[in-house]
């Protein structure tokens, strides 16, 4: 069966520090991969998605970036975190972007001080 | 409708009662409508993916309907149980292949 792992579960970082959140999927090949953020009181916002190695589409201009160095690995990064980057970050995968559901990781609670 | 909107924002229902809530989405360029259940301290879990107008799907006591012409979907829960307490999210997939989520309906079942 397929599983998705996302870490760390919680992270407290100072403003201006770098960020790296990692997500890996097991039990499937060539998944579509996604990074979402939920800011306080708001819905899930799609940040990045990837349909293959090295292919990243950005939905929202910001100081975050994503990379997909391997088929089942998706990394969310920042060189310098802002206060506004605080939130709950979710990684997800799906086999098909239209007709198949997305499967989510457990999320990372990021607090910027 | 330009965004995905869910109503009500929150709902308290007595155990055993049935309930329903609404998801409104842009009807133009529609591709698919997703429903997820998000329990506290867990990750969102897929309930349904619907693509055809008039679609109706059922999973145990939970069912959903879809009207793509007018841009709405209803989620029904029959005979609510405490384990149904969660936030229910809907998301619309439009032609640009971007899944847009609503802010959810937070359901609390009162024992």
Report helical residue fraction of chain A.
under 10%
Q: Any idea what the shape of chain A is?
A: globular
The largest sheet of chain A, given as strand count, sense and whether it forms a barrel, is: 7 strands, mixed
Determine the number of helices of chain A (DSSP H or I, runs of at least 4 residues).
0
Question: What does this molecule look like?
Answer:
The complex is a heterodimer of chains A (113) and B (111). With 113 residues, chain A is mainly beta. Chain A is 0% helix and 58% strand. Chain A has no helices and eleven strands. In chain A, the strands form two sheets. In chain A, strands 2, 4, 5, 6, 9, 10 and 11 form a seven-stranded mixed sheet that branches. Chain A has a four-stranded antiparallel sheet with strand order 1-3-8-7, with no helix packed on it. In chain A, strand 9 and strand 10 form a beta hairpin. Chain A is globular. The relative contact order of chain A is 0.33. Chain B is an all-beta fold. Chain B has no helices and eleven strands. Chain B has strands at residues 5-7, 10-14, 19-24, 30-38, 45-50, 56-59, 62-67, 72-77, 86-94, 99-101, 105-110. In chain B, the strands form two sheets. In chain B, strands 2, 4, 5, 9, 10 and 11 form a six-stranded mixed sheet that branches. A five-stranded antiparallel sheet of chain B has the order 1-3-8-7-6, with no helix packed on it. Chain B starts with a strand and ends with a strand. The mean pLDDT of chain B is 93. Chains A and B meet through strand 5 and strand 10 of A and strand 4, strand 5, strand 9 and strand 10 of B.
Q: Main traits of this protein?
A:
heterodimer; A: 113 residues; mainly beta; 4-stranded antiparallel beta sheet; B: 111 residues; 6-stranded mixed beta sheet; 11 strands
